[in-house]
Design brief:
By secondary structure, the chain is mainly α. It has four helices and no strands.
Length: 170
């Protein structure tokens, strides 16, 4: 008969509990193989009963992300085109306003030049009128008695005849 190693090892014995498995590597390999097969079988059963594989979920999720990114990109392109159109309209309106402002400035400058010219003409006329008043005043001072002309009768008659003619003609 064979001698089997005792299950209890005294503390001072040369055999340790870890060395006892060293003689049976077949059992360790078998246990590891069973654990691996059970793990693979569990994963396969889980995939079979859930109906979806994580790889398919990842593919679907990535396609959805790509579709969302494409949609967001299209929206950005549309918004950018809208902004470009709005910006161009604003530039055109600004150009029109600048042209109008320049026209108003030219008109204002022309009006100011006309005002200056007219002011100079008014000053010249005022000086001329003052000169005429002075000469008239000096001419009056030289004439001691100004003669008052009486209107001639002929003119009065003529005027009255014109009035009478006007009345008779109607």
């Amino acid at each position: 008969m064979r001698e089997v190693a005792p299950r209890y090892f005294p503390s001072g014995s040369p055999v340790s509990p870890t060395s006892r498995f060293g003689g049976q590597p077949f059992m360790i390999g078998l246990a590891a193989l069973v654990a691996i097969v059970l793990g693979i079988g569990g994963i396969a059963a889980w995939r079979a009963f859930t109906g979806t594989a994580p790889e398919l979920d990842r593919v679907v999720a990535s396609r959805q992300l790509q579709a969302r990114a494409a949609q967001a990109s299209e929206q950005l392109v549309e918004k950018t085109k809208g902004l470009e159109a709005t910006q161009q309209e604003s530039i055109d309106q600004l150009q029109v306003v600048q042209d109008q402002l320049q026209t108003v400035r030219r008109l204002l400058a022309a009006q100011q030049a006309d005002n200056k010219r007219l002011s100079e003409q008014v000053a010249t006329l005022t000086e001329s009128i003052d000169g005429l008043r002075q000469s008239f005043a000096s001419a009056r001072a030289d004439d001691p008695a100004p003669s008052v002309r009486k209107p001639s009768r002929k003119k009065k008659i003529y005027r009255s005849t014109n009035r009478k003619r006007g009345k008779s003609q109607s």
